[in-house]
Structure formats: structure tokens, C-alpha cells
Design brief:
The protein is of the alpha/beta class and 250 residues long. The protein has a domain of 66 residues. The chain has nine helices and ten strands. The strands form two sheets. A six-stranded mixed β-sheet has the order 6-7-8-3-9-10, sandwiched between helices. The protein has a four-stranded antiparallel β-sheet with strand order 2-1-4-5, with helices on one face. Strand 7, helix 6 and strand 8 form a beta-alpha-beta unit. Helix 3 runs parallel beside helix 5, helix 5 runs parallel beside helix 6 and helix 6 packs parallel to helix 7. The longest helix is centred in the C-terminal third of the chain and has 18 residues. The radius of gyration is 18 Å and the shape is globular. Bound molecules: adenosine-5'-triphosphate and magnesium ion. Adenosine-5'-triphosphate binds next to strand 2 and helix 1.
Length: 250
């Protein structure tokens, strides 16, 4: 398969007043690759995802999605591009007053306004099937467990068949077994749909399952890059300390 660069981050910097959050970051993510982004709290991981999707402008530098520089796109071109990008926000909440069916129909109708009601129903059912929650279709979010809500939120973010998925802490707050299930779901979806993804996580269980490659943000820079084994097995004192303290042992 051709080596297609889905995301190119070129010399991106971002600061808030005196706080430099990203300092001249460059990075590429290729088609069907799963990149994991590590970093301590407050190191700019969520900011990086928001910049990639165009929710926040960088102070300098460029983001290219499939070769298109997002800062040069018109609003309608950016909207069209965003239809191909799924975003699972940190602490992603479902709409509490809507059923699961309505929660999933919502992005579908927005992205494909011409879809018929039966097409919407079919797509909702088949997507719930992917996360093994067909039976929850007419439930309210309050009737679901935390892990089920995460799976529904995941279903909602992939229902439009995005080519690129951005996950911000997809497994935070879940027990190790559910974390493993969600991570396996992410990797299965990615393989089945040939998705490219960037996942921010603090969770080594999740990262070990999903990552093809990982980077580590520190002091506003990409401080380390490699596969998970290289990073976790490193003798670097900072990485050793991070991996021994940051994660709940299995
Ligand atoms: N809109 C904003 N205005 C001002 N400061 C911001 C804004 N968004 C983020 N920041 C600051 O930028 C820094 C990086 O924030 P970010 O949310 O990217 O951290 P993070 O690495 O995702 O942390 P966590 O692991 O806790 O989610 C933080 O110090 C935060 O306070
Ligand atoms: Mg964050």
C-alpha cells in the first residue's frame, strides 16, 4: 500500500500568554497507522488534537490533512474535511436527554443530510453492533454503565466512517478489563475500516494494544519517539520514572 501521509504537523507552535505549550512540533502520521501521544498532564496533548482538527489555530506552523493545508481552506472546505475526521473528546459525554439511537443519529444527519430514515436506522444498528451494544439502542445514557457510555461515545464518533480518528484519553477512568475491551475495539475498528488514528492516553494497557508508534510530549517538544517497547524499556531516567509512576500496574 502506498505510504500516504494523512496528517502532517509542520513546525507548529502554540502559547497561552507566557506558557509555551507546543514549541516547533513536527510530526507525520501515515495511513492506517495508530500513533499514541503520551505526556504528563498539562503538556499540550489535548491542545495538539484541537489544532489538528482546526478547533484552535496554531500561533505558527501548518497542519496538512491528506496534503491540504487546513489554514488555507474556506469554512465549507474545512467542514467537508472534518466529515472525514472523528473526534472522541476527553471525557466525551453523550447527550443525556437523548436515547442512544438519537445520540448516534445526530452526527449522521449532520454529516449526511440526505440520508433516509431507514438508512439512518440501519447505520445506527450496524455501528452499535460493532461495539456489541445493539440492545442499548433505545436506552437513555443514565441507564448505561461508564464503560458502556464510552463504547456508545466511540460508536458515535465512528458512525460517519471517518478516515482519521482522534482519541483524547479514550480509556481514562475505566477498570483494566474494560480498558482492554475498549482498546481492542479501537484496534479492531481501525483494522476493519483501515483508519488512521492519533490517540492521547495515560494508559499503558491501552497504548500497548493500539500503538504502532508513540511519541512523548515534554517541555513543549516531542521529547521521545519510538514503539512502546522501546519507550517502556528505555533506561532514560525520565521515561523510567514516568512509566513506573504514571500507570496503574496490571
Ligand atoms: N484555551 C486555553 N486558554 C488558555 N490556556 C489553555 C487553553 N487550553 C489549554 N490551555 C493550557 O495549555 C496547557 C496544555 O493543556 P492541554 O489541555 O493540552 O493539556 P493535556 O496535556 O491534554 O493535559 P491532561 O493530560 O491533563 O488532559 C495547560 O497548561 C492548559 O492550562
Ligand atoms: Mg488533555
Amino acid at each position: 500500500m502506498a505510504d500516504i501521509r494523512v496528517v502532517e504537523i509542520k513546525n507548529v507552535s502554540k502559547r497561552f500568554d507566557d506558557l509555551i505549550v507546543l514549541d516547533n512540533i513536527s510530526l507525520e502520521v501515515h495511513r492506517a497507522e495508530n500513533l499514541v501521544v503520551f505526556g504528563r498532564s498539562g503538556q499540550g496533548k489535548s491542545v495538539l488534537l484541537k489544532i489538528i482538527i482546526g478547533l484552535m489555530p496554531p500561533d505558527s506552523g501548518n497542519i496538512l490533512i491528506k496534503g491540504q493545508n487546513i489554514s488555507e481552506l474556506t469554512v465549507s472546505e474545512l467542514n467537508r474535511l472534518r466529515k472525514n475526521i472523528g473526534f472522541l473528546f476527553q471525557g466525551s459525554a453523550l447527550y443525556d436527554s437523548m436515547t442512544v439511537r438519537e445520540n448516534l443519529s445526530f452526527p449522521l444527519k449532520r454529516t449526511y443530510p440526505d440520508m433516509s430514515q431507514s438508512e439512518i436506522t440501519n447505520k445506527v444498528v450496524s455501528t452499535l453492533d460493532l461495539v456489541s451494544l445493539e440492545d442499548a439502542i433505545d436506552k437513555m445514557p443514565s441507564e448505561l454503565s461508564g464503560g458502556m457510555k464510552k463504547r456508545i461515545a466511540l460508536a458515535r464518533s465512528i458512525i460517519t466512517d471517518p478516515e482519521l480518528m482522534l482519541y483524547d484519553e479514550p480509556t481514562t477512568g475505566l477498570d483494566p478489563i474494560t480498558t482492554k475491551e475498549i482498546s481492542e475495539l479501537i484496534i479492531n475498528l481501525q483494522k476493519r475500516l483501515n483508519m488512521t488514528s492519533i490517540a492521547v492516553t495515560h494508559d499503558l494497557i491501552c497504548a500497548e494494544i493500539i500503538a504502532d508508534r508513540a511519541i512523548f510530549l515534554k517541555d513543549a517538544k516531542v521529547a521521545y519517539e519510538g514503539n512502546i517497547k522501546e519507550l517502556t524499556g528505555s533506561n532514560d531516567p525520565f521515561l523510567k520514572n514516568f512509566f513506573s509512576h504514571e500507570f496503574v500496574p496490571q
